[in-house]
């Protein structure tokens, strides 16, 4: 009978409405601990399911929603039976593996370590953590940091130094990696700060340089190529045709990201977008290319988002809109909120 109850619990324990779960697991007293051992070792369908339960427990321990805080503190070792504790420690170590590999200059291996099928690491990376990785991979530098509570990378903006004498990661590899992450992690895909960091790296913003405008023929052909890249690789590893990078490598990568941005910019979670558009100030030709690809419906949606951001952050949104007029296309003159 007890095993039937444990089996039913297995079906429900990860459901978001079943909370807290620590008091439930604490009902497994020492004389029936064999049932909890069976639950962790035999009944859970896979490792990802087990990790989901552990993360839920740790979240409850941090939020302390369970009645008695002292019980909450004492229950961690009890409910996380040894096999599960080993599992969570492995998860914590594997989450730091990309960072450790970056410190050694093993950038390609670091990118691969984000996608192990058994741990789902890429889906757990937070946007502020991803910004650290973007800057490390894009600049060949690393912060002096400590690993804080719950795997967080704690660092100061003022303490970055050269990683090694290794050759920096090619920009094309970085762009392919980011586009692949976007498919696995919606929080990063729709995070404004991550887009700003990425476009500053690829567009030369951090290096205080600009990219020369490509030939008009290249710009027209790029429309077709970037669409093929983003559609063809929608379910796997992103690959960029070599011929697309031959003449204007940096510009081609910027245009690929610009099209990827165009496809997501209307998403309600991607906000604010004005800082993203400001990254194009050094490459206005790419921003013009962006606007030319926006139909009237998308253009109106973007303008509405811009005006709403100005309304939320300034006293006079109409005047503020004038101050960023250089970022908008000719249709903005006739747009009415």
SSE diagram, text form:
Layout: H1 2-12, H2 22-25, H3 33-43, H4 47-63, H5 69-79, H6 82-103, H7 107-112, H8 121-124, H9 127-139, E1 141-147, E2 153-162, H10 171-184, H11 186-189, H12 192-203, H13 216-232, H14 249-264, H15 274-278, H16 284-293, H17 296-313, H18 317-323
Antiparallel strand pairs: 1-2
Helix pairs in contact: 1-3, 4-6, 9-12, 10-14, 12-14, 13-14, 14-16, 17-18
Give an account of the 3D structure.
There is one protein chain. This protein has two domains: 79 residues, no CATH class; 168 residues, no CATH class. The chain has 18 helices and two strands. The protein is globular and about 70 Å long. It starts with a helix and ends in a 14-residue tail after the last helix. About 3% of the residues have low confidence.
Tertiary shape? globular
Please give the number of β-strands.
Answer: 2
Total separate domains:
2
The number of distinct helices, counting runs of at least 4 residues, comes to 18
The residue fraction in helices comes out at 55-70%
Radius of gyration: 24 Å
With strands numbered from the N-terminus, the spatial order across the biggest sheet is 1-2
Which secondary-structure class do the elements indicate? Answer: mainly alpha
Q: Biggest β-sheet, characterized?
A: 2 strands, antiparallel
Q: Which residues form runs of ≥5 with pLDDT under 50?
A: 65-75
Helix-strand string: HHHHHHHHHEEHHHHHHHHH
